[in-house]
Structure formats: structure tokens, C-alpha cells
Amino acid sequence: MRKAMRVFVYLLGLVALGNSAPSVAMAEGQRVAVGPSTAPLHGPWRFHVGDDPRWSAPDFDDSAWENVDLTPAPGAHDGDVGLPGYVAGWSQRGHAGYSGFAWYRLTVTVESHGDAPLALTGPTLLDSTYQLYIDGHLAGGPGDFSTGKATVYSVRPTVFPLPHGMVGGTRTYHLASRVWMDPLDASDEAGGIHVAPAIGTAESIDHLHRVQWLQTFEGYVVDAVEPAAFLVLALMAAALMACRTGDRYGWLVTALVLLALLRVNQVLFYWTPYLSLRSYDIAVTVVLRPLVLAAWVLAWRDGFHVDNRAWLRGGEARRSGWLRRDGLPRDGLRYVVAALAAIYIVAAFVGRPWMMPGAAAACDVIIAVVRVAFAALYVAIIVTGVVIGTKPSAPPEAKPGAWRVALTALAAVLVGIGLFAAELNTLGIPGIWFPWGVGVARGQYAYAAFIPLLFALILTRLITTSHSSRPAARGTPL
Prior knowledge:
Order of helices and strands: HEEEEEEEEEEEEEEHHHHHHHHEEH
Radius of gyration: 28 Å
Strand content: 15-25%
Number of strands: 16
Shape: elongated
Helix content: 40-55%
Structural class: alpha+beta
Distance between the termini: 33 Å
Number of helices: 10
């Protein structure tokens, strides 16, 4: 199916781009010839950091500005979705570390042999948002600049009709793009336009626009499907919890719902105009990531039934008065996990670039330490669960099958691959692959394998429960 979609994209691309006439870039602008084609506006563009509304005027003298060529290397694409035509931003063009406003200007002279209306696509990849001016008039854009500071919404494929008017077979347009890069997007390659806009007849631009939207859809469709699957699994786990006694699946249900919310925020940001970058960042980085880690640690703690085992006992627990009347320790792990999540949330919020920039480095260190602590707990629970589940001294009626222990551990490992992506990156493991030119993250592969595995584990439990008059033995993994 995915291969067929890529073939469809390629064929549409041939319709839209295959007959593009070559363009000649000149110092004062760009001259293009259009027929049944589109032409990318590589420039060179005039570029200047800062902000002044007068820079949108067609007669503004930008001769002292920098020249920026947006011509990509052959086969270049971005490292996330796989959008073609990618170039590095202003951070690699002499403005490293700069975030804020900047302007791009270009004069385009179009040679046309007909009277067909022309149109322009906006850049499909840009840090972080923009407004486009055509001949000094605001044409639109995803950015909200009404308060003097930009509110960033995702840059999605957009078409801008061009004014109609011809003099001697040519039309000249003065384009000016007001760009804002949010500090949240700062990186070694960030800043400004990464994929150049294109110009052409309205019909050819419409074809190109469809191709761009299909590429955007393909890039994030997995992030839409997987959350739906997580919610189905949460409903199944809730049903299992309702019909069984002695098993606890509350944290598993919570973890699945939180993970669904974490993944679906990506889709909401890149597919819709409703979620701003700051709102997305707070929801994902500050709130959901810490809570997801905490919930999954507790979910596997319950799934393996290791909360009251030997590795959570000890003299320290007895001395501190954490023991219940039955002699088992209180739920100390839950308090540890809650403390780690609270520290993570506070550090992530204080360390936002727009909150306390000076504290960002220290907060990043705190977050890294907390994440390592979560990872250590996560691995310890899996190892302890496997050891307990396969312990030879366990009574036969309370000992689960080795296959179930192994599959539960595998499910936990697959989720961990997605949860601890940053830590795996430091080990040099590739974080994203591009099958058929579409970016698919390592975590997406792991979750894709985890979903049917957990489905099978829960389903077999439900079937066993429906045919049994008593619940499975205490201590049985998922």
C-alpha cells in the first residue's frame, strides 16, 4: 500500500514538475518561463535579519542585503518526513545562534505564452512561521503576528494566487517573506526557508499542492494510526480488569491513553491550524513525556507483579516504617516514580527557551539524569519480572508459561525503544529510516510491533478468563 502511494506521488510529481522549464537566477531577482509547469524559486533571494514592515514594499532598496541561494543538492531531503529540495537554514549561513525575525525578498519575472492565471506555493518547510507579501500586499501565511510577536502554527502546504496582469508577455512580482524562528526550533541547521516555494500556472500549482499534501500525510499518518490502536488496547485492558480479580491494569490503561495523547499531538500540530508551537511544546515536552515514562514504569511493575518482591524490600524499608501490617513494604516505587516525574516536569518548564533561557543548560542536565533514572527502573523491572516468572522454586500452579514471560518482556522492550529514543540515539543507533522516501522513526517501528503483541497477550487473557471459573494465579505476567 505504501509503495503504491509513493508511485502515485511520483506520477503526480511528473505531471507537476516534469516539464518545468529551466530558470535563470540573476542578481536582481529570478526570471522563469512557465507553460504547463512549475518552477522552484531558488533565487538568489535577498536576506536580512531583523524586522521592519517597510521591507515588504516593492520599491524598497535591498541592494545591501545578503544573497541567499536556496538551490538544494541533488537528492537532498529533510531528516524527518523526507520532503525533497531541502537546504540548511541561516544557522549555517553566518547567523548561528540567532532566533527571531528575518526577511527574504525576491523579484520574479515570469515569461508566459498564454493568459492562464498564475499561482505560488508557500515553502513546505520553514523555521518557524512566515507571512508572505506579494507586491507589497499581505497574501497570508500560517503565522499570527497581530500581537507584535509571532504565534507559531505549523507550516503546511499552501497556495497563493498571483495578481493577473501582463506587459509584453511578461509579468513581474515582488515577493517578500517575513519569517520568525522560535527559540524552540533552534538547532545547527535551523533558521528560515528550507524548501523553496514554487511558481507556475494555477493548474500546475494545484497538482504540486496535492503532491505536497500527500507527502505531509504520509509523513505523519503512522502517528495518527498508532494512537487509535493504543486507545483500543486501553479499552481491552479495562475490560480485562473489569472481568478479572487479582490483576491490576489501571496503570496499563493510563499508560496507553497517555502514550496515545503524546503521539496524536504530532498529528494535530502538523495537519491542522489549531495547535500552536508553544501549546504543543508544553503538552508534549513539559507534561506528557514525564507522565508517560512514569505511567509505563508502574504499568510494567503491575504487569510483572514485582512491586512486593525482594528487590523492593530491605532493611531500609523496615527502618523507615514503610511496612504494611502484613509485613510487605509499602508502595515505595510509586513515590520514587512520582518524585522523578515532578522533577522532570519542573525542570522541563523552567528550561523552556522562552521561560528562563539562562537555566536551559542546567535543566537539560537534570532532565537527562531523571530520564536515566527512569530507564534504570524500567530495565530493573523487566529483569526482575523475568527472573521471578521463571524462578524454578515457584509452585507450578503460580508459575506462568515461559512463553508468556518472554512475550511480556518483549512488549516492554518494544515500548522502551520508543520511550527512550534520546538515550538510544547517544548509542549511535539510527533514529529514522526512509523507506520509499518517507521518514519512519525507530519508535514507530517499535510501536508497530508492540501493538499486535499486546493485543495478543490481552486477547488470550480475555479468552482464558471467559473459560475459567477462577482468575489466573497471582503473579502471572500480562
